[in-house]
Amino acid sequence: MTTSNVVLKIALSDADKLDTNRAVKKLLQRIFKYVWQNKLPFFFALVIIICLSIMQALIPQVTRYTIDVVIPTKQLNLLPWIVGAIFLISILTGVLNYGRTYLMSLFGERIIDSIRNDMYKHIQGLSISFFENQRTGDLMSRLAKDVNAIGTLVTADIAEILVDVFTVIVIIIYLLTTDWQLSLLLIFTWPLTIYMTQVFGKSMRGAYREVEEQAAAVNNHLQDTISNIQVIKSFGNERYEINRFFEQSRSYMEANIRATRLWSIFFPVIDVLNNIGSAIVLVFGSWEVIVGRLTIGELAAFLAYVSQVNRPIRRFSKMIQLVQRALVGSERVFEILEMEPEVKEKEDAVVLTSVEGNLKFENVEFGYQEGETVLHDFTLEIKPGMTVALVGSSGAGKSTVAKLAARFYDPQKGKILIDNRNLRDISLESLRSHLGIVSQETLLLYGTVRDNIAYGKIDATDAEIEAAAKAANAHDFIINFPEGYNSIIGERGVKLSGGQRQRLAIARILLKNPQFVILDEATSALDTESEQLIQESLQQLLKDRTSLVIAHRLSTIEKADKIVVLESGCILETGTHPELIAKGGRYASLHSRQFPQKSSQLEPLDIQDKKLEYVS
């Protein structure tokens, strides 16, 4: 951060200061909710902290008694008692410190666990649109690093602050009752210290927000490049990615340096103010001893207390760095927790126990962004047990129809019904429990073959898993693996071929046994042999189920009950394969391009010059 930026931060307007204070207050209130949920160990630790503060105030009193009583009266017999008192205070302080550290650690870990669990649960409840606009590395950084920063604040940091606060309170009470004039001189510099802490604190919070953002950027780069290492190597772009990482790492380093520069200015300023206060106390206290208003022992105790008071202030000036990082982490965590899902479930949502499989789209309009329309007045009915295929150019809206059917998004206009119930009235979990999706990009989890198939039915038996694999034509290649169904398939199934991954995905859906199936270009990226095996698996999957098939290869949908041709979000034509071929329209044109040997040479249809026909 440049000097001009620092000045700008310091010179905040009153409105900005008010907004900042409100934001910090809100953050602390959110954190306090978790503190209160785990209050029991905190209250026990608080009792220990109060006892610790009293223990720390006793040592200077022993010093005062030794100087003012034992030494002038030469009572050597009291020295062993003095040593014993100091030893006992040290032992008790050690025991109390152990109890405080353990209880505060327990308290902090419970808070970290609560926040992390709430955040993960909340993220799971957010809509697909959220994940399409977020970087994985950033979410990982928030879930791990930022949540831990909050934990640091409420464990060691808050414990140290509380010990210091209670110690200062005990000492100030004693000093005011002993010599109020000298005490006032001691706290003379405190208002300036508090002011400097506020000023630098705001600047450091902005600096540490930049640090966390740069850290997230590094995580994003690592996640992207490691998960796509095969692409990087296939294009020979290792050096390019190394240079990009160096740039990200340098930006992260520079952000840390800017934050450290602010803290490096702040810390010496606090030291100077503390030393000025100590010098004033030493000079005025020495004068009081000379005129007989204070004993040497009382001055020694007073100076010891000054040191005890200055230590917390000095420690707090160091801790402000950690506190600001924790506040930034809190902001980033609660930013996620405050996000609302775009697709919301009603409180009285209906739970579907069974479905017939009738799906209707009624005058649906939808766009991913404001001002954009992907589907226009889309009306379609898929009857139970029927297979309906969607075909058309890329960007025609085919996959959008599938996402709306799964209620990953809600339409801006119109409605979608399943068995004459609006999807908005149905609980998301029960809706998707009756739905199976096989997409072009097969999504597998790191783990064994068995784990990935069983993901369709968590409590499935080995016999059920094997039966599903056989139905999907996956059993033969699975048993040829060294460990069969217990073989590790790697992250996202990298150890499998495309056809093998797809057959595992189909086995997973067969095991789930949904009534409604969506196939989103499930065979478009496969070779001919794999496609044939997949087609056999799909025949098992689609049997007696309502199916919505998005197809790129038209050979896969020739037997569909209905084929719907989409262009620019509109239904251009519908019918069976023979009907559409006979019509000689857009479908026939697409078919002739893929299979010129099977079709007469049809002139390509210029859909730009043809008025779109809306078909229900």
Summarize the structure in words:
With 616 residues, this protein is of the alpha/beta class. The chain is built from 20 helices and 10 strands. The strands form 2 sheets. The protein has a 6-stranded mixed β-sheet with strand order 6-7-8-3-9-10, sandwiched between helices. It has a 4-stranded antiparallel β-sheet with strand order 2-1-4-5, covered by helices on one side. A hairpin with a 2-residue loop joins β9 and β10. α6 runs antiparallel to α11 and α8 runs antiparallel to α10. It is elongated. The two termini are 60 Å apart. The N terminus and C terminus are likely disordered.
Content of β-strand:
5-15%
Structural class: alpha/beta
Mean pLDDT: 76
Number of helices: 20
Q: In sequence order, what are the helices and strands, one letter per element?
A: HHHHHHHHHHHEEEHEEHEHHHHEHEEEHH
Biggest pleated-sheet summary = 6 strands, mixed
Overall helicity: 55-70%
Radius of gyration: 35 Å
Largest sheet strand order = 6-7-8-3-9-10
Which outline best applies? Answer: elongated
The beta-strand count equals 10
Distance between the termini: 60 Å
The low-confidence parts are 1-19, 599-616
How is this structure best summarized?
The chain is an alpha/beta fold and 616 residues long. Helix content is 63%, strand content 9%.
Topology of this protein?
Layout: H1 3-10, H2 14-37, H3 39-73, H4 79-125, H5 128-132, H6 136-178, H7 180-186, H8 190-227, H9 229-234, H10 238-290, H11 296-337, E1 359-366, E2 375-382, E3 387-392, H12 398-405, E4 413-418, E5 421-422, H13 428-433, E6 435-439, H14 449-454, H15 462-471, H16 475-479, H17 498-512, E7 516-520, H18 528-542, E8 546-550, E9 562-567, E10 570-575, H19 577-583, H20 586-594
Parallel strand pairs: 3-8, 3-9, 6-7, 7-8
Antiparallel strand pairs: 1-2, 1-4, 4-5, 9-10
Helix pairs in contact: 2-11, 3-4, 3-6, 3-11, 4-6, 4-11, 6-7, 6-8, 6-11, 7-10, 8-10, 8-11, 10-11, 15-17, 17-18, 19-20
